[in-house]
Amino acid sequence: MKTIADQKDQRRFDGFSEATFRFFRGLTENPSKTFWERHQDEWRRDVLAPMERLLAGLEAEFGQGNVLSMRRDNRFSPDPSPYKTFLGAVVTLDNGMCHYVEISAEGMTAAGGWKFNHPPDQVERYRSAVDRDESGQALVQIASRLREKGFVLTGDRIKTVPRGFSPDHPRAEWLGYKTICAEVHWPVDAWMFTEEALNRVADAWRETRPLVDWLGTHVGPSNWTCR
What is the CA 28 to chain-centroid distance, rounded? Predict the structure, then answer.
């Protein structure tokens, strides 16, 4: 009979495993319904369970996380594959931003910022904040520090300066973003098979807090509704 201590220990994150990455290598080679149905046990044991334990270990500091669906929304995609080849999880914050972690055959990714969706009111507030000298320069300084620490600034963006802004705007690089987050990627390494993986994600999320806070202050949650 399992004791309460045994049950608690099952919730303790002690790393992913070679089986985790083996599952994703197989799924990447064959992202089909057939593969998925034949490997449900491995998915639950080697991928979903450790991700849930990772989120549980981060919850006290960062809040409750949610594992995202593996199903692809391919309604507007030329790729008919029904499943993603990675597993993502997100902690959604009250300020409208998020922390994100992902595992795939290539390794792990951790990110923080404004990652999903770009309703018009958020985009408008973001660009207004970039345009203003004080808040815009603060964003540039935050981004510069993150890049120095190995983060990449990424997100949905347009290739040109948005309408209404000068092409030679001093922060033209930043005006084109419609979502923006800072992320760091790690290729598969032995530390991912230990609790160090939790520590790395936690450290990355802490490093992105200045960006998350800036976005929470100047962009915030969306109030937009479809009419």
Answer: 20
Strand partners, 187: 107
Q: Averaged over 10-15, what is the pLDDT?
A: 86
Q: What are phi and psi of 125, to 5 degrees?
A: -65, -40
Decide: 181 and 112 in contact? Cβ < 8 Å. Answer: yes
Tokens representing 13? 């994150």
Count of C-beta atoms within a 10 Å radius of residue 216: 18
| E-only strand ranges, the chain | 66-67, 86-92, 98-104, 107-114, 152-154, 180-187
For 5-31, give one letter per residue: b (16+ CB within 10 A) or e: eeeeeeeebebbeeebbebbebbeeeb
pTM of the shown model: 0.91
Residue 195 phi, psi dihedral angles, 5° rounding: -65, -10
Question: 94 exposed, middle or buried (CB, 10 Å; 0-12, 13-18, 19+)?
Answer: exposed
Lowest mean pLDDT among 5-19, 46-60, 78-92: 5-19
